[in-house]
Amino acid sequence: MKSSPEVTLSPEVQADLSVAKRGSDELLVESEFAAKLARSRATGVPLRIKLGLDPTAPDIHLGHTVVLNKMRQLQDLGHTVIFLIGDFTSLIGDPSGRNATRPPLSAEQIRANAETYYAQASMVLDPERTEIRYNSEWCDQLGARGMIQLASRYTVARMMEREDFTRRFKGGIPISVHEFLYPLMQGYDSVALKADLELGGTDQKFNLLVGRELQKEYGQEPQCILTMPLLEGTDGVEKMSKSKGNYIGISEQPDSMFGKLMSISDTLMWRYFELLSFRPVADIQAMQAQVEQGANPRDMKVALAQEIVARFHTQQDAHDALARFEARFRDGAMPEDMPEVQLAGAPLGILKVLREAGLAASASEAQRNVEQGGVRIDGSRVEDKSLLMQPGTYVLQVGKRKFARVTLNAAP
């Protein structure tokens, strides 16, 4: 599709474009997408907007909702959103950003994980206006002949432009032939769905561009692509991931969700506001200005935590979670700053964690603190001295004055 940069956009189209771009990393090609929006407004035909997620884990976390939120915003503009579950591509395994071949999931694992995806995605998207699709619908039908014909439409040279493939090839790290099929199959999804726009994280840019090129090969108008930033996990370092234990699941209980959000650093809080909050940009900027002028950042973090909890539960749940959180720390105020500790090898016993986090001088002291009721995790008293702590980020408290924000990373 050709569009001219000289075309004057109506105020309505400019507003739509602003909604699409808020918080995004990159929109390619902006002039083409503006023309698509203008055509949609003129004809009343909604755009087809695609997001594909592979069910590699059973739960959706806040990191996933960065793109889901954008889908909902575009859905509210009247466009058709397609939530694509990659049950076929999961059999291949997405190599994006990896330094080694990703083990493919079994069909049983994929089915088990996919069962919860739709229900959880519906906590963000309007299920009445969402098209749910599985890419096995068309990928299974391709067969060997169709796969060969599809592969003939993309060159090895183009595939090797992908950064992680290039890095692995130069480093002598094996690349399996089936990994080349992943971006091809993801791209073919766009052909099958006749997508106008595809969303994804910044790590998906190559795959999204393959879809654009394949649509041209099949005589379709190429999709535009909108990449969203990857949300850092509660540790503020790695991207949010269940495997790294730094995630906040959208189906977690209100108190757990609230506590984890309160445990993030004051700096990371603004990143979460940017990518997760539905507040107007001007409101967030005003909050930042208040903090710069001396306001307590904890108050802003409370507002963020309540907004997120209310979104996935209820406003009353958010109110109650705050009340319980404050009650837990009433006897000893939670400090604004506390030591940040990273420990590997989770799950780890609570006594070992207390010792290695510097909250107890010995295992016997740690055990005594637990037995005396002086140890809390995210405000909840620990009563089991044999407790195994799973990967994640927690605020640990011993007595009234010892605190540490501890991130437990899974064993390699």
Brief summary of the model shown:
A motif ('KMSKS' region) lies at residues 239-243. With 412 residues, this protein is α/β, with parallel strands linked by helices. It is built from 16 helices and 13 strands.
Keywords:
412 residues, alpha/beta, Rossmann fold, Tyrosyl-Transfer RNA Synthetase, Structural Genomics Hypothetical 15.5 Kd Protein In mrcA-pckA Intergenic Region, Chain A, 3 domains, 6-stranded mixed β-sheet, 16 helices, disordered N terminus, aa-tRNA-synth_Ic, aminoacyl-trna synthetase
Walk me through the structure.
It is an enzyme of class 6 (ligase). Pfam families: S4, tRNA-synt_1b. This is Tyrosine--tRNA ligase. A motif ('KMSKS' region) lies at residues 239-243. Homodimer. This protein is of the alpha/beta class. The chain folds into three domains: 11-228, HUPs (Rossmann fold); 254-328, Tyrosyl-Transfer RNA Synthetase (Orthogonal Bundle), CATH 1.10.240.10; 340-410, Structural Genomics Hypothetical 15.5 Kd Protein In mrcA-pckA Intergenic Region, Chain A (Roll). Helices cover 47% and strands 15% of the residues. It is built from 16 helices and 13 strands. The protein has helices at residues 11-21, 30-43, 62-76, 107-121, 136-151, 156-159, 163-170, 177-193, 205-217, 254-263, 266-276, 281-292, 297-312, 315-328, 350-356, 363-371, and strands at residues 26-28, 48-53, 80-85, 130-134, 197-201, 224-228, 340-346, 348-349, 375-377, 380-381, 388-389, 392-398, 402-410. The strands form three sheets. A six-stranded mixed beta sheet has the order 1-6-5-2-3-4, with helices on both faces. The protein has a five-stranded mixed beta sheet with strand order 7-13-12-9-10, with helices on both faces. Strand 2, helix 3 (62-76) and strand 3 (80-85) form a beta-alpha-beta unit. Helix 8 packs across helix 9 (205-217). The radius of gyration is 24 Å and the shape is globular. The termini are far apart. Mean pLDDT is 86; it is low at 1-5 and 97-101.
